[in-house]
Amino acid sequence: MERLRTDFASREELSAYIRELTPWALGEACSTEGGRSAAQRALARVQPAAYARTRNFGDGQVTRLSAYIRHGVVSLNEVRNRALECVPRAEDAEKLIQELAWRDYWQRVRAEHPQWMWSDIEPYKTGFDAAEYGLELPPDIAEGRTGVACLDYFIGELKVTGYLHNHARMYLAAYVVHFRRVRWQAGAKWFLEHLLDGDLASNNLSWQWVASTFSNKPYVFNLENVTRYFGKTVDVRPESNRELDASYEELDSRLFPRLGGMRGVR
Amino acid sequence: MRREHPVFRAAGEAERVIFIWDDAYLSEQGWTLKRLVFVYECACAMGAEVVRGDTLAVLKGLGTERVYVAESLNPFVRTVAEGLRACGIEVTTVAEEPFVMLRKGGELGRFFRYWSRAQRSAMQPDAGLTRENLFGQDG
Questions:
Q1: Is B113 a domain residue?
Q2: Interface contacts (A, B; CB < 8 Å)
Q3: Which residue of A89, A155, B73, B124 shows the fewest CB atoms closer than 10 Å?
């Protein structure tokens, strides 16, 4: 039994130590600090009302607590209690609490149906069979050189920071599954490798939701949507994002030709 | 991975806090370095002894009669607990603080069905529970 070091003069020293311990691990350390104190600082910054107003935007007031919640450094109960403490009326914290509830919900789904984590819960509702989807993540996606500027930016963020805004996760998932017709499992595995908050239930069931194997229709997005939520921070010029620069009607007929434009009403 | 988790309350003062760095398990997860560093930093920050080795072998090697484990959906944790019990080591699994108490209602279904059963409890501090109930009867 080998006892490992726990005292480090700096994060750089700790990172170098872990690199030596795990020569098989890819990539570099990131700036998100582990531990209870760091989690408590993030908890103190929670602003439920601003969260409700701005959370869908790339520069919105999201909590960045997900990695701490995933690893049990703070509990959902603690975050909820903190959210209720800092609003005059409980309703002002409802949006944030509902998002916390999503995590609780995914965990309960996993507890009830552990076999759903890596298998299609329902067939794809895209007009294609599962067998028509690729099994492996294409290298240009893994490396962030798809040629679609906003997606390459998000992939870079994922790899460097281990974090992605929820909308960016949905965009990448929809791109992998519907634009590139790759099975959701390949993308889910890729996210779990990189995301500090990567959780089997939240991650894989969300991928299934986008894929339509755990929802009534596939989720897709276009450049207009990215521009609305990330226009201030990401390159959303049409000439840099041609593949996404289309109306939903055009995308439906391009991506789901067998559905005859009947993907569902958005 | 926090000292405020109910598992520490259940274990009492005499506990020895151990985080096991299991190379085989970790490499199987395929995690990148940034995630491994984050997790290791969390373990150090909670004042755990970090021990390298096969999880079951490390726990057996401690020579203890009882192990407290935070409840997890991870089947690996269940397998280890079974392995310990097979060697006569008592394993106590302690649940996380509850986030909601669901109203009765059968199958979970899609999210908004769950939310209709969860909302009332979710919108109250400590899910509307007393501190005693929050931490369970063993707390």
A1: yes
A2: 192
A3: A89
The beta-carbon neighbor of B34 closest among A28, A37, A109 is A28
CA dihedral A159, A161, A167, A172 (to 10 degrees): 0
pLDDT tens by residue, chain B, 139 residues? 899 999 999 998 767 899 999 999 999 999 999 999 999 999 999 999 999 999 999 999 998 999 999 999 999 999 999 999 999 999 999 999 999 998 887 888 889 999 999 999 999 999 998 766 666 543 3
- Domain extent for B52: 6-94
* Cα angle, residue A176 at apex, residues A170 and A182 outer, rounded to 5°: 135
- A14, A19, A94: residue with CB nearest B41: A14
Task: Return d(Cα A102, Cα B8) in angstroms, integer.
Answer: 27
- Round to the nearest angstrom and report the end-to-end CA distance of chain B: 18
Q: Check whether residue B85 and residue B137 sit in a common domain.
A: no
Does B53 share its domain with B84?
yes
For A232, list phi and psi in degrees, rounded to 5.
-80, -25
Quick one: CA torsion of A85, A86, A90, A91, rounded to 10 degrees? -160
Q: How many structural domains comprise chain B?
A: 2
Please state, in angstroms and rounded to a whole number, the distance separating the CA atoms of residues B123 and A90.
7
Place of tokens 């398990």: B25
- Pair (B90, B103) in one structural domain: no
